[in-house]
Amino acid sequence: MSKIIEIENLQLTYAPNTSLQRQALQNINLTVESGEFRAIIGPQGSGKSTLLQVMAGLEVGLGKVIVDGLDLRQKKNRRMLWQRVGVIFQQPERQLFEDSLYNDVAYGPKNIGLSSEEIERRVKTALKKVKLGEEYYPLSPFKLSGGQQRRAAIAGILAMEPKILLLDEPTAGLDPKGRQEIMNLFSELCRKQGITMIMVSHDMEEVAHRADKVTVLQKGTVFLEGGPQEIFAQGNQLTEIGLAVPFASELANALRERGKNVSNVTTLADAEREVGKMLRRRNGH
Ligand code: ADP
Question: For strand 213-218 and strand 37-41, is the pairing parallel, antiparallel, or unpaired?
C-alpha cells in the first residue's frame, strides 16, 4: 500500500494575532494509506473538523500536508484537489438545488467539461451506487425522503469519481436504517473500489465496526492512534477525555479489570466469543 495522505508538524491557528486567536491544531503527524478506512474521533472542539478542512485544502496551516501527491502548501495544488477529494460535510442535502435529481448529480461532471456521454455514464453509475433507480431521475430532489436526499447529495460527489472521501458526521440526523444504508455504502466504496475514507464520527459502534485505524484527537493534537481493538481497549483513557467506547469493548474492559483473561473486542460477536471462552475455562473444558 502507498501513502495517500502525509501530514507533518501541522499547526493551525484561527484568527491569529487577534483577541479571538485559537490554536485549533498543533504538532499533528499523520499518515493514511491508500484504500484505508480511517476514523477520527475526539471530544467537541478537539480539531476534527479543522483537520478535515485542511485535508480538503479549505484551510491552510503551517507544516507539510501532502494529499494524493499534491503539496497543499501551494495554492495551485489546493485548486487541483477538488477533482480528487470528495467532501461530505454535515447535512450535504442542503446543497441540493437543481430541478431534478439527474441534473443535480450531473452538475459537477458538467462543470469540468466532460462529454455528454461521459456525464450520463457518471450520473447513472453514481445513482446506481446509492440505490436511486431511474424512476427518481426526473423528480425534484426536494420530493425525496431525508435518507434519499442524503444519498442524492452523496451521488453528486461520487459522480466526480474522487479517490478520497472526507466525511464529517455523514450519518448525523438519519434514522437507524438510513444510517446503516449510508455506512454500508461507504464501506463498499472503500473495500470494493479502493476509495480512501476519512470519517469524523461520534458513533463509536460504527467506528469500531468500519475503521481500519482510529486517530483520537484531544486539544488539537493526536492523543492516541491504532486499530479499533487497541484503541477501544483503552477505555479509561477515552472516558477521561469524555469519549464513549462501544458496548462490547466496555464489557471486555470491565471483565479485564476483574482479572479475567479477555482479548480486545469491539463487536458483540467478539464479546460473545470471549465470554464463551471464559465460561469454558471456568467449567474446565
Ligand atoms: P471539532 O470538529 O473536534 O469539534 P473544530 O475543528 O471544529 O473541532 O474546532 C477546533 C477549535 O477551533 C475549537 O476550539 C473551535 O472553537 C475553534 N474553531 C473552529 N472553527 C473556527 C473558526 N472558523 N474560527 C475560529 N475558531 C474556530
Answer: parallel
